[in-house]
Amino acid sequence: IHHLVEDGRRAEDDFSDSLDLPAMARDTMGIQNEIIPNIRSAVLSRDLNRRVPTLTHAKGIYYHTFCGRSIVDACGGSAVACLGHGNARVTTAVSEQMGKVPYCHSQFFTTRASERLADAVIRSTDGKMSRLLTVSSGSEALEAALKIARQYFLELPEPQPQRRHFIGRAPSYHGATLSALEVGGHLSRRAMFEPMLASKTERVSLCNPYRGMRPGETSEEYVARLAYELDTAFSRFPPNSVCAFVAETVTGASTGTIPATDGYFVAMKRVCEKHGALLILDEVMCGIGRTGTMHAWQQEDVVPNIQVVGKAFGGGFVPVSGVLIDKQVDHAIEHGSGKISHGQSFQAHPSACAAALEVHNIILEEELLANVKAMGDRLAGTLQERIGSHPNVGDIRGRGLFWSVEFVRNKATRESLPRDWNVGYAFHEFAMQEPYNICVYPGNGTADGVVGDHTLIAPAYNVTAAEIDIIVDRLARAVTDFFEGLT
Ligand code: PLP
After folding, report:
1. Substitution candidate for ligand 1 out of 284, 288, 291, 454 with most atoms within 8 A of CB
2. What are the distances in angstroms from CA 175 to CA 148, 190, 258, 301, 347?
3. How is 87-111 classified by DSSP, letter by letter?
4. pTM as predicted
5. What is the CA 46 to chain-centroid distance, rounded?
6. Complex confidence, ipTM
């Protein structure tokens, strides 16, 4: 369908049809007044997106479509393309690796690329983590993390085979595979598969001050309440039967970027330790520099027992993800079976490791963490300036280059927009179109039984001030026009 559409029509037509506009309006797509009267009906009939554009190439923060449109990538896909699109150093590193050792099975061999990647990543944790397992996607890495947690308890000098449960949070997202869905609290992504899920997980509330804090409650009281809730969740299982508490250090896909309240993770880890369970931090979306430090936990005064990375790990150049384990877990496995019980054909794939290593080196050598902080401040400041007072903008939140705008119906009461409007997704489709041409990552809290429609912004770490201004300008115009047409 895409090819038929893109072959047969002019550039503007690949999106204008989806708004069900009269022919004249389609011909004058740049004139916003022609579009706005249709937004409400397009949103209500869920008719904003019937096709996605075909890309021909992508460079820096721009996607270029077959029809000649240039779309600003404000979110790196799903916070993946951390160096933007196209990087000569990564291309060279991957092609050189393919020329040296294109493939080997990690059970029989290792490569310099995988060894150097592990060294570099472990060094970036200041030695707090001890071993790296490299796989291909965030979901697989999360699966492996759950398995490693169980393996740890089986390989202790006094094994604890009764430990087989997990505690996650709701809402949350940890991946698309069955166990990742099971531990996650993303209701709509789970729904179809619910009967197949193992139901070995309890879920506690997310740390979401905008939605979760009670009037008059202090941060300390809020954290104490969440710690108590976690403690209570442990007690719903038989004693010593929970392997780990699983959480994103800064949330992403399910709720929009929410940094935890100060002291939250310290308190959560204390509860885990009380029950002899591990802390697994999922940094697939927020890790590897996204929040301004190489690891998001480095801003939380806490060290996880197991950590999962993905997305920015390979910058989107290759599919690659990783599981890091701390000394405690590594020691048990080292003195037990000696190896992590997780084997896949593409584990420690040489080209994937070469790409991830080069991405890692570029982040450090080009001092991109400093740019993430500086450009993150600019992004936050200009977002606040341009749309902070908009009546449908409830919350602007984030850290580093990981920001979200939560939309509401009523700013004062924080009432959400109607659930069936799917505003997070609808706004994404709207912003992708002329004249905005900006790709932001959608999130529909309300569609998930949780309040919080939002749009997520996660530009490349090497984004410039001028590019931040372009992103904010397009986003602000899209927000203004979208809500003018919708409400
Ligand atoms: N964990 C988190 C926090 C994520 O945001 C995602 C994907 O969005 C995953 C895990 C799954 O990663 P992948 O899509 O690479 O399998």
Report:
1. 284
2. 17, 10, 18, 26, 18
3. -HHHHHHHHHHHHH-S---TTT---
4. 0.91
5. 25
6. 0.99
